[in-house]
Amino acid sequence: MKFSPWALVNTLTGILVRKRSRFVVGSQSSVRWLALRSIRGGTVRIGNDCIINCVINFDDPKGHVSIGDRSYVGSSHLVCHSNIEIGDDVIISWGVTIVDHDSHSLDWDIRQNDVRDWRMGQKNWSGVAIKPVRIQDKVWIGFGASILKGVTVGEGAVIGAQAVVTKDVAPYTVVAGNPARIIRHLTPEPILNQDR
User: Fold this and answer.
1) pLDDT tens digit string along 21-69?
2) What gap in Å lies between CA 191 and CA 86, rounded to an integer?
3) Helix/strand/coil for 185
4) Could you give the residue numbers annotated as active site?
5) Beta bridge partners of 97
6) What is the b/e burial string over 156-169, where b = at least 16 CB atoms within 10 angstroms of the residue's CB?
7) Do the Cβ atoms of 176 and 183 come closer than 8 Å?
8) CA angle 192, 31, 136 (to 5 degrees)
9) Contact 92, 141 (CB under 8 A)
10) What is the pLDDT of residues 98-150, one digit of tens each?
11) Structure pTM?
């Protein structure tokens, strides 16, 4: 079997990434390891039959990202301090940002030294709001959307392109806008393919 130069570099990068972090990748899943080359710390679990092309950054070495089976994550960005969960049969387009924290404190007295601390490789997380993000099964997230801390996106929901999601999204609804609002209710479709 002949490898393309890109496939060889991607495979070698995958070996290095797995040595620096805790990765579990299910069978038949395709991972663009080059996008993950800078990952350090954290735990990543990717299910079976996935296509993963995103960047994942951990802001704490105890962070955890899990992606279910048959899910696709395009050229997007997951920023995890503690926990981001993505379910089965999820489609996440390109340019999506999912983050489980506010990055900085709202209080100037707490965040005033953030840049100086970064230069020294440090970060003071006191005063920074951190809450897990959960994307349930069968969700579709359109390009450029932002899913912010503490949000649960219910099963079968659709997030419109460029939406900014700051609150939970009910199952089988379509939301869009900034901030995201319900624009339509969906009817769950009967399962046509019982072979899964």
Assistant:
1) 677 888 999 888 777 655 667 899 999 999 999 999 988 989 999 999 9
2) 21
3) strand
4) 104
5) 77, 146
6) bbbbbebbbbeeeb
7) yes
8) 45
9) yes
10) 999 999 999 999 999 999 998 998 888 889 999 999 999 999 999 999 999 99
11) 0.85
